[in-house]
Amino acid sequence: MNPRHWARDLAMGARFAVTGGREGWVRMTLTAVGVGLGVALLLLCTAMPNVIASRNKVEDARYANVYSQTVPPKADDTLLIAVADTTWHDDDIRGRIVEPEGRRAPLPPGVDRFPGKGEMVVSPALKDLLDSDDAKLLRERLPYRITGTIGESGLIGSHELAYYAGASGLKLSVTFPVTRLTEYGKPDAPPEETDPVLLLMVMVVIVVLLTPVAVFIAAAVRFGGERRDRRLAALRLVGSDRGMTRRIAAGEALAGALLGLAVGTGFFLLGRQKLGTGELLGVSVWPSYLDPAPALAALVAVAVPVAAVLVTLLAMRGVVVEPLGVVRAARQRRRRLWWRLLPPLAGLGMLYPMLGQGHENGDFNQYLVIGGVLMLLIGITALLPWAVEAVVVRLGKGPLSWQLAVRRLQLSSGTAARMVNGIAVAVAGAIALQMLFTGTQNRYTESTGMDPDRVQMQVEFSSPKPPSGIERAFTGTKGVRAAAVLARAEYGDSRRDPKSNSDLTVGSCAALRELAALPSCKDGDVFIKRTRSGYSDPSNAAEIALAKPGRQLYIDPSYDGEDRGLEVPWTVPANLRQVNARKDSLQEYASLLVTPAALPAKAAPAVFSDGVYLRLDPSVPDSREYVRNVAARMDPLAQAFGWSATQENAKYTSIRTGLFVGSAFVLALIGASLLVSQLEQLRERRKLLSALVAFGTRRRTLSLSVLWQTALPVGLGLVLATGVGVVLGTVLLKMTRIPVAMDWASVLTMTGVGAAVVGVVTLLSLPPLLRMMRPSGLRTE
Amino acid sequence: MPRIHGMYSVLMSIGHTLLGLLESGPRHGYDLKRAFDETFGHDRPLHYGQVYSTMSRLLKNGLVEVDGIEAGGGPERKRYAITDAGITDVEQWLATPQKPEEYLQSALYTKVVLALLTHRDAADILDTQRSEHLRSMRILTDRKRKGDLADQLICDHALFHLEADLRWLELTAARLDKLREAVAR
Amino acid sequence: MTTSPPGRLLTAQDLRKTYAHTHALDGAEFSIHPGEVVAVMGPSGSGKSTLLHCLAGILPPDSGSITYNGREMTTMSDAQRSALRRSEFGFVFQFGQLVPELTCVENVALPLRLNGTSRKEAERAALGWMERLEVDDLKGKRPGEVSGGQGQRVAVARALVTGPRVLFADEPTGALDSYNGERVMELLTDAARSTNAAVVLVTHETRVAAYSDREIVVRDGRSQDMERAI
């Protein structure tokens, strides 16, 4: 093949693409927009490594290690910093309280001046949030005056909620979340080893998200194919041979793809600004993070046009353009099954060697994983046209709308299958992933041992506080049904340097019932648990012997070389009862349970509480915010958190979030492509539709036939997708050595989402259909 | 309507037509007249005399010969056969193109121009003529539908000519304004 | 000429219809008797197709009245007009009217199926009409596989299959050569006469118009009955 001919014919095709008159431009625009959307999505993906790197860089640059073992001495360049994170509804707010100890104290990234006491600098998003009307409770919690904003270099995304508040008199302590530092930054740690199963998931997610995009681009290049074929026939008439015709067609596709690249770059740049200023599923970034990796971007720029040409040549294979029209060879030749089975079988073959490898036996071969998953998914696009044809040929009887649809599909099952390919691939991938996620969920979700039915929230203070104040504060809080304050005090068998010592737990009867099964209880009672936890010998005989009724003990004894304790004498009451500890006890460490009235009043200053357990009133919507506010008022460094039964591995969660974000994009894209090809098909048939309406066809009949025409291939596509998805999911689970369990609910959800996209598209194409059915379509242009 | 049939009689060469009929085999004079009338005669059958005089002219020119005579005598009893020269003559006649008829002068054209010159409504004249033409066409179409192949051929010929007239009428109607200017100048 | 009119089947008075800027119809009149074939002629863009579309209830006129069988059509709802077209009218267009993916017999059966006739019965009736139009041998073929003249005869069969009282034909021979055009016209008018259906025939060919009983000429959106002009 002469390259000069190639160049000439491609150029001619490209010229046809842009000089095709109004029709040509419409088609060109559709292709360019379609390809552009795909390209924008691909560019977005190429920017992902940079996004992760940039976010890590910022995280690293502002990291203050509160758990550091070595704390530098106070100096001119030191800073006291404490963690004061909080939560507003479902959004986490990163909070730090800072106190510079000298003029050269290090400023956090993005902050140009330390906030003074009672002042804070905030991220722009937090400023907006605080300014909004419904953030009254948050304003109460963060009562500082805003004196500035945190710059981009100190935030990991434009919508991150963060603040630095100024303070004075922060106390450095080992138990305090307060530290002193001279510079920010993460201590060098050995790189974490990624769990190979998580890596497998990442790979599968990427393939599953990108394959539909590729399928979509391939479909977009073929937008307006029928009209194009007619023009090619005209070219044959004036003497172009078959080879030339193909090259001209490829040239048109190339022009569309190149324009699509340009449009896609434009979309990407626009989207970059939009994404940089918006957020999706709680994730936001800065526009500058969305810089495509040059090598990957170059790959996109080359792969898209090349793929466009290849797809066109492949599609032209089944089409014979004759001077007087286009003959689709596909009509004469029934599709054969055998070669269509090759890609999925090859995919299975690539994945097979890794079966049973599990996550202990080293990494999965990346190439085989990606290749295998890709082949299985691409296999759908090969199998679907065959399946649609094989099924449609056997259909017949039914109402008129059904007949119209079935006949249409029999004549052009390829077009129909092409439309559905993208959605089938996406759904199959989603089903497989869903199976993988459900199967591995247990591994990456730990049980916290917390029962959210019993306690909905827990507050931990940065330093112990007297229990009476806590109870008062929280019992009166809006939305709190009950506050269980458990306090502790130390006791010993002598005033000084006791030979035996232990802790006792002080709490109301209600609070103590959270620890042990009490037969009866009134203030003044004392109990001791029969068992102790945390010891290899659960028998609590030693402490039971120590705390014999009538024995003289001392609360808060003194130790040699330390501050003197209160040394309050306390006689163990005669009504001390032995009780059984609750298996689901809230706290474990102290076995001696004492109601407040059983202790002498003088001992009160020695009793401290670290926090409180809260039962909330579900009918008060903002109860959690009220609790957080009370906690913050008592102790700005207090941590208030909700109880949940399980906790997910953070990486696992972020992969999952990534999947959802990606799926949202991909489904929107596929929906758009479906809509475009649907409208195009309708436009082709405008005159016929008008004629059908002229002799009295009900609009309902025509609308229904359009629905059938979409629903049939979509239904088949979804069935096929479910099959392939389940196979792929099973294989992936077998690879990770996780027992295969079918999660039919999620399979149904995924197919349901796919079907919903089609439903929406059909609905959206109805108004144009109705408009096209107007009799004015009969008028000759 | 008579115009049409007159036209055909005049244009037709009876001698060549009879020769052509003989090509399929020898015939009696009476048979010839019947065959002619069936295929071409329609409203105006041939006279025996016309057949007789034509055949004797053809005999004299050596284009036909007498194949046999039946008892009783008389021209209609003779059986004629075509000679090789006769066949050649028919071939030559068929191969010679007819001179296309050109209607450079017509009464209708004159009427239109006159109407314009005298500031009468030429459109009315055209419309009246149009109706009349269409009426003729309808009758011919009707006859064509009821008749045999020969009827169809001859009616179609007439219909196409009438259609040509009608096209001219339409064009003229569309051009009347320009024509009016031209005539007034 | 062939029928003595007992009364008018379809009449229109003072029809006006304006597209964006042009007056497609500007006071057109029309009437037809049962069994009558009326040709609507006129230069391109004169409004003859618009007149046909209005008469057939496809397009509502801006003003004027259309009466079919004593019923005013301009005040009917779209659904009513559609039902009328389904049951009382038949249509033949120049092209683009056969559904390419249906076979010929399915195409002919289509209007019956729209009226709720069962598939089997509809196709039996369709085949009967295809025989009358001499295209019954094409029943299993798709429109793409038959010639223009055959396709148009299939279309005529389809227009007549419901036994319409009015047949609207818009340039039915426009895409055919004279032989096939004549053949279609013969079959169309024969079939219409045999069922006493009226035919509204829009054409610019006088030889096609010659199949009519009466002629109406539309010029600049106004109609003129050529019989009365004499």
UniProtKB/TrEMBL annotation, chain A:
Main localisation: membrane
Keywords recorded for this protein, A-Z: Cell membrane, Membrane, Transmembrane, Transmembrane helix
Membrane topology: Multi-pass membrane protein
UniProt-listed InterPro entries: ABC3_permease_C (IPR003838), Membrane_comp_ABC_pdt (IPR038766)
Origin superkingdom: Bacteria
UniProt key word Membrane: yes
Residue stretches spanning the membrane: 25-47, 198-221, 253-273, 293-316, 337-355, 367-395, 658-677, 706-732, 744-766
Cellular location(s): Cell membrane
All copies of domain ABC3 transporter permease C-terminal, residue ranges: 204-315, 661-771
GO cellular component annotations of the record: plasma membrane
PANTHER family attached to this UniProt entry: INNER MEMBRANE PROTEIN, MEMBRANE COMPONENT OF PREDICTED ABC SUPERFAMILY METABOLITE UPTAKE TRANSPORTER
Protein name: Membrane protein
UniProt organism field: Streptomyces lacrimifluminis
Automatic annotation (TrEMBL), chain C:
Pfam annotation, one family: ABC_tran
Key word tRNA-binding present: no
Top-level taxon in the UniProt lineage: Bacteria
Swiss-Prot/TrEMBL keywords: ATP-binding, Nucleotide-binding, Transport
Cellular component terms per the entry's GO annotation: plasma membrane
PROSITE patterns attached to this UniProt entry: ABC_TRANSPORTER_2 (PS50893)
Signal peptide feature range: none
Native organism: Streptomyces lacrimifluminis
Domain ABC transporter residues, every copy: 10-230
A GO term for molecular function: ATP binding
Protein name: ABC transporter ATP-binding protein
SMART domains: AAA
